[in-house]
Write a structure and sequence with these properties.
Blueprint (H helix, E strand, L loop, with lengths): L4 H10 L2 H6 L4 E4 L2 E4 L11 E4 L4 E4 L5 E2 L1 H8 L4 H12 L8 H28 L5 H9 L4 H6 L3 E3 L5 H6 L5 H7 L2 E3 L6 E3 L4 E7 L5 E7 L8 E3 L15 H9 L5 E2 L3 H9 L5 E2 L8 H10 L4 E4 L3 H14 L10 E4 L6 H8 L1 H9 L2 E2 H12 L5 H16 L4 H18 L1 H7 L21 H18 L4 H10 L5 H16 L5 H19 L16 H20 L1 H14 L3 H4 L2 H15 L14
Parallel strand pairs: 12-13, 12-14, 14-15
Antiparallel strand pairs: 1-2, 2-3, 3-4, 4-5, 6-9, 7-8, 9-10, 10-11, 15-16
Length: about 625
């Protein structure tokens, strides 16, 4: 039997999860969560957590996870119907009786899920066939290995117009294939066709992990670049988030809920350890999708691209969310560097760069204030009055009266603080007056992500242009951990070439790499990267070798202090206070020595004006 979602939500709201679980195992409250020994496996130290606010339990030992209905099913060996009936009785709710029409709909939906599942298996098999070679190569270029392809169930829709239809007609009638959205039919024609053709396929799952639809991406320049399944009885585009079933597990384990823009971004984030990533299906966030997000997290992080289109998407999300805000339920906004998305940022700069972006996420109220302030200056009474009117109008959009008042108060304080320098100057207390200490003007702080990338580029570029160094550094080069995925793949290929054909000169090595799919990487690491390693210009091989090893040492120091650096970068991006950066010894040292360390090994550098003796 299929129950209305509102009925199941009412059960979850009325029945205390911690109380139900507490009957099976002793729970101890720790902050906003409860901990205890897992009732599903033997353990001596508590690894089982219960989050009453989010309605989840999770065991970090055995991985069991679910809500109150799932707990009753697993702990009491009940079926879904039995568990719902037991909990409904405890909550004082009457179980709705299914009408014949509802029973028929439930059977049809189940069968449509089976159609979607069969189509998914077909696409997966096609990707591994000869027909899917180009699609498999495309995914490899995007950095996805066999494990990732299997985990996210990626596939390929062949170019023919009826191969999927022919495959599925063995088990399902054609009207059902049409209803499931896996084949299409033009009104002026009687014949049907495969809805997806010659596309890399991303299965779209419901919150329980069942396949309900697909997204298909072309590998060339055809339009549209992405094509989603049409709406069906089991799929409504505006109500679904890609990656939701995985994110539910991740958030239950403590991960941040992150909203990004595309399929590949979600996959890249999950692979990098950000297990709460989801994405809308190529459209602006809808009210239904926002409701799904707030079921999982009080303050999801919207992380859109730093380009104009990404910022427009963020602005639309803010406009849609503003009337729906309630006490405790809001959004945070993280901005990626211009020209980067999560996939490329992690590939170039590693996980630490993405962590820094997320740590710098700003609350919705601050973003809204910045938007309205940037729209027009407030250097006249009329313009100040206009700003106040716009801020009031925005606050009035919030339907919750108490929260709306809080926004009014917040914006009044913002305007007051913004105009404080003007008031101080008018009162004769300007910043240049005696008795007021001027803050020193500091140079801009270093970009930690760029520094991390630069060091890795120097390590690989120097080997690429002086491969004879490998005779002395092959063990270090083989063991070094590079966080930039593209550079690490190139490093591994260089090691493979050296192992099979030692002694290659630079030109032959580059030619080999280009023939094996690394041409773009070789071009990217052109000699201009060695400007940051001036010792490379030396004719003394020992000095070049010592310089490479010193860069390696600095890189390893970066890895050791990455967490501290990333935290400082996040605080600086959020607050704009350079003291966060300058107070950190690793970064302060980097600011002093960054250029000097690239000139050559320490023993080759001498202060100007001193004797070399």
């Amino acid at each position: 039997m299929s129950f209305p979602p509102a009925f199941l939500d009412e059960i979850r709201a009325r029945v205390a999860l911690a109380e139900v679980i507490g009957r099976r195992t002793r729970l101890v409250k720790r902050g906003r969560e409860y901990t205890g020994l897992c009732p599903f496996h033997n353990e001596k130290s508590p690894s089982f957590t219960v989050n009453e606010d989010k309605g989840f339990f999770h065991c970090f030992g055995c991985g069991v996870h679910g809500d109150v209905i799932g707990f009753v099913m697993q702990s009491q060996n009940m079926g879904f119907l039995e568990a719902v009936e037991a909990l409904a009785g405890e909550a004082g709710l009457e179980v709705p009786k299914a009408t014949p029409q509802e029973r028929e709909k439930a059977v049809r939906q189940k069968t449509l899920n089976e159609v979607a599942e069969a189509a998914c298996s077909f696409f997966q098999a096609q990707l591994q066939s000869r027909a899917g070679a180009a699609a498999l190569a495309y995914l490899d270029r995007r950095g996805l290995d066999a494990a990732a392809i299997e985990r996210f169930r990626l596939g390929y829709a062949p170019a023919g117009s009826g191969l999927l239809k022919q495959h599925l007609l063995v088990d399902f009638p054609e009207p059902m294939l049409l209803e499931a959205g896996v084949i299409g039919q033009k009104e002026e024609r009687d014949s049907s066709f495969d809805y997806f053709r010659d596309r890399v396929m991303f299965p779209i799952l419901d919150r329980s992990g069942r396949v309900i639809a697909f997204g298909g991406r072309v590998m060339g320049d055809a339009k549209p670049k992405y094509l989603n399944s049409p709406d069906t009885p089991i799929f409504h585009k505006g109500s679904v988030l890609y990656g939701l079933s995985w994110a539910r597990i991740g958030v239950g384990k403590g991960a941040d809920l992150i909203v990004t823009e595309g399929y590949m971004d979600v996959i890249a984030l999950h692979r990098a350890g950000f297990e709460g990533a989801v994405a809308p299906l190529g459209t602006a966030l809808t009210e239904q999708q926002l409701a799904e997000l707030w079921r999982l997290s009080e303050e999801p992080v919207l992380c859109f691209d730093g380009d104009a289109a990404g910022q427009r998407a963020a602005s639309r999300a803010l406009d849609r969310a503003l009337p729906l805000l309630t006490p405790g339920k809001s959004l945070r906004f993280a901005v990626l560097p211009a020209g980067e998305d999560p996939d490329t940022l992690i590939g170039k700069f590693g996980v630490a760069a993405m962590q820094g972006v997320l740590k710098a996420a700003r609350p919705l109220a601050e973003v809204l204030w910045s938007q309205e302030l940037a729209a027009r200056s407030i250097d006249t009474p009329e313009r100040k009055a206009d700003l106040n009117a716009r801020l009031k109008a925005r606050s009035d959009q919030i339907q919750d009266a108490g929260l709306s008042r809080e926004y009014h108060s917040f914006f009044r304080n913002c305007v007051y603080e913004r105009l404080r320098p003007v008031r101080d100057k008018q009162r004769g207390k300007g910043y240049g007056k005696p008795g007021r200490v001027m803050a020193p003007t500091l140079p801009p702080p270093p970009d930690p992500a760029a520094l991390l990338r630069r060091k890795q580029e120097v390590l690989v570029a120097l080997v690429l242009h002086s491969p004879d160094l490998l005779d002395d550094i092959i063990e270090d080069f083989a063991e070094v951990e590079l966080t930039a995925n593209d550079l690490d793949k190139l490093r591994r290929e260089i090691i493979n070439v050296h192992a099979s054909e030692p002694g290659l000169d630079a030109a032959t090595l580059k030619h080999h790499l280009s023939n094996h799919g690394f041409g773009r990487d070789v071009e990217t690491l052109s000699p201009h990267h060695l400007v940051h390693a001036k010792f490379a210009l030396s004719a003394d091989r020992d000095q070049i070798l010592a310089g490479w090893r010193q860069v390696l040492s600095h890189w390893r120091d970066h890895l050791t202090g990455a967490t501290e650096v990333e935290a400082a970068a996040g605080r600086f991006a959020r607050d704009g206070n350079q003291a966060y950066v300058l107070a950190l010894p690793p970064l302060a040292e980097q600011r002093r020595n960054d250029e000097a360390e690239q000139d050559g090994p320490a023993e080759s550098r001498r202060p100007v004006g001193r004797s070399s003796k």
